[in-house]
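Q: I'm writing a short explainer about FAD-dependent oxidoreductase for a general audience and would like to include a description of its predicted shape. Could you first generate the structure from this sequence?
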Amino acid sequence: MACENPQSTDYDAVVIGGGFYGATIALYLANQRGLKRVLLVEAESALLSRASYNNQARVHNGYHYPRSFTTAYRSRVNLPKFARDWPQAIRQDFTKLYAIARRNSKVTAKQFERFCHSIDAPISSASPELRALFEPRLIEDVFLVQEYAFDTIKLAKWAESELSVSGIEVLCNTRAAKIFKGLSVPLNIVLKATEGCERLLSTRLIFNCTYSGLNQLSGGFCGVRSGLKQEITEMPLMKMPDSLSGLGITVMDGPFFSMMPFPARGLHSLSHVRYTPHLHWTDQQGVDPYEKLGNYQKESRVDRMIRDAGRYVPEILKAEYRHSLFEIKTVLTRNESDDGRPILFERHLELPGCFSILGGKIDNIYDVLEKMDESF
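A: Of course. Here's the predicted structure. Afterward I'll give you a sentence or two in plain language.
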């Protein structure tokens, strides 16, 4: 059904997706590019409540990507910028350790150390007390590094405040359904509210920042050219024992695990390369990933995660499980082999003024903003 008194005023830009990327891009358009009428559309009832919240809450510093120098280097460049721009949402008061497994690792301890030096990432040998937390028969070496965690709740409060101050209109409980070229205006977009009403708007620019929903628009939108892989993932939230409460630990680089502080809940997240992904498929238009997630039987694999992680760090066996965050994770298929996380920034030639944007990590936002500077 149509909304009563549908809004017909044109917008300079419509940003689809109210996650961290969408909110930041909307603010960039208003504050850096001087656009007067910017609309931010979010399908959920609140901003930053999907992929921006349901993740490991890690601000990378490059260590995680020894097989993708470009991704590692960009993280190394972007981390200090992120800490500078969002200090209120950054947690630094924990000790971060990277451990290299003796078997099945894709890098040795010496290779990892050389890699860190190559990207100028701080690294030093862990103390004997910290090394004692690890099973020496399975761990080759343990390093003290520098990584941060972010609090999504604080980022959401920042976004709400800044969007209001900047005069950006926000529509929650609303999804974009269709995009097509207009006759007298560059682009038309059809929005559907949760209660079922529709409205047709016109705009000069559209930024599709819907993450897993990038290909779920119809009309003249033909989808992104890059191949996307969708995964249903599980991120258990844990209460760690006192011996681990002030730590973040990553054991790599193979079928291993990571535990990170999750500031939004005062807990730790636990992820495992083998058990975190539950189901995956190649993305395509007409297959709604959020619908698949909603219909998925969410049986936790936390017991298997803890059991395997406990072989390397026995104290993890004392952790208390709270609950799991299930979410869709979207990655570029071309980077499956090297684990790289570059951004996707596509201009849709069939819809002049329409762009699709995907970032694999929160610090990628600076790469996106650089692309925006180049494109306008």
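A: For your explainer, you could say: The radius of gyration is 21 Å.
Q: Perfect, that's easy to follow.
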